Amino acid sequence: MKTCLKTCISLFLSIGLFTACAVRGAPPDEAGPGEVFIYRTRTGERIYSDRLITYEIVTTPVSVSKRDVVINALNSPAFTAGLSGSLPDGVKIISVDTANGFALVTVSDNFEELPAFEKTLAGSCITLTLCELEDISSVTIRAAGSMIFEALTPDGIMLYDTETLPYEKSLRLYFTDTSVDLLRPEYHTLTVDADTPLERYVIEELLRGPYNESLLSFIPPGTELLAITTEEGLCTVDLSSAFIDNEPPEPAVARLAVYSIVNSLTSLKETDFVLFLSDGKPISYYGLLNMSIPFERNDSLVARTA
Questions:
Q1: Looking at the predicted structure, is the pLDDT value of residue 255 above 80?
Q2: Do residues 4 and 18 touch, judged by C-beta distance below 8 A?
Q3: Tell me, what's the pLDDT at 44?
Q4: 140: enclosing H helix or E strand
Q5: Are 238 and 278 in contact (CB under 8 A)?
């Protein structure tokens, strides 16, 4: 779900020539006389909040143009406690050239080195702030001779919540507790990206193994994930030939290897069943398990918590 950028908090602070404050709710359609809106990022909440960007109202002296105040403010730290600057540390606006409602913003070369998400936040703050000025309706941002963002407008800037941006996710994975020969859950907290299915993270973490030294992974060594897809609750996992070639000789161990995968994947709300392939081909049997049909979760193999 998309989240609108124009979200605010209630804070007041006076500093030097400027008066900076943020008011609850969306900003007015237009700034008052001698006021400009400077958009900032919120400190500490990062991508886990639906209020990534808020604003400060800066009151400008009569003798200083709004445009000059805006550029200076964008290049400065936030005036209000709890907010970060519009630009990451070390990044500066070098120049702003305007014509026919269009602003070409040249920023320092190090802008190009920023992670994509930081670029997006900074570009959003620049665009939302500059487009509050009467003579600017769109913004293009250039760094190191390259166009980073072209023709951005406030209406076109949307930030996504944790369904579409990298965020922290706790995955429930199942490894074998050899003291009871059953599966036991272990939680791995990762920063995940919405472009990568959670199912892939689950398998990759299973292949890396448990943190707890009292747990083991019975998935055969050398096994690699080749592909994974989920449709209508059925997750199809394609593993490399090592999964078959290095199959555990004991049927009970093979069973735990399979269900460590099945129970981990079905911990995701999107997955009800798991079907296994190897090198893109169906698997007939694994130990005593018929692998030609999808597996559903088996909690009888999970050790009870004392």
A1: yes
A2: no
A3: 54
A4: strand 138-143
A5: yes
pLDDT-derived band at 194 (thresholds 50, 70, 90) equals confident
Number of other residues whose CB lies within 10 A of the CB of residue 84? 17
User: Tokens standing for 273?
Assistant: 């069943």
Distance CA 24, CA 105 (A): 29
Burial of 47 (0-12, 13-18, 19+ CB in 10 A): middle
What average pLDDT does the segment 11-27 reach?
Answer: 34
Q: Rounded CA gap, 218 and 184, in Å?
A: 13
Distance separating alpha carbons of residues 143 and 22, to the nearest angstrom: 30
Helix 198-208 × helix 251-265 angle, to 10°: 140
Q: Are 160 and 190 in contact (CB under 8 A)?
A: no
Q: Is 132 within 8 Å of 31 (Cβ atoms)?
A: yes
Yes or no: say if 60 and 66 are a contact pair by the CB < 8 Å rule. Answer: yes
The torsion defined by the Cα of 62, 64, 65 and 71, in degrees rounded to 10, comes to -140
